[in-house]
Fold this protein.
Amino acid sequence: MKLGITGTKKGGTSQQLLTARTVLLTLKPDEVHLGDCVGVDDEIRLLCIELGLYTVGHPPIEKPYRAFGTFNEIRPEKTRLARNDDIINETSVLMALPRSFTNLNRSGTWYTYRHAVQAQKKTILILPDGTRGEAIGAGINTTRRNN
């Protein structure tokens, strides 16, 4: 299974990162596709290295946002929105770690999440308090994590 990641450039909360770690350990994806931006992308990349997961980087052409991380594979640089679409297209599941609890129009994380839902991809949404929701298509089911 190939897992895509999208998340805030501000970085995830400790609760989000704990839930993301649990998801990674549970799913054990064959590949994790990340955007190589500062924030959640880099935090999850480091977690993947720690867990021994295979990573594929999708770097942005916008240098101020790039983390310049190391990956097992790296794709050509693209605009952030174009490479987010590539992450959706190359994976079967998308895990999103947004900065806000509500779906915002001017957010790359929420843009990517909405596009994954429209593409009928399975999604895992991890909100700032660690709440985990999953969606296929338009329906969203949100559950509290048990910790």
Summary: The chain has one domain: 2-143. Residues 136-147 have pLDDT under 50 and may be disordered. The chain has four helices and eight strands.
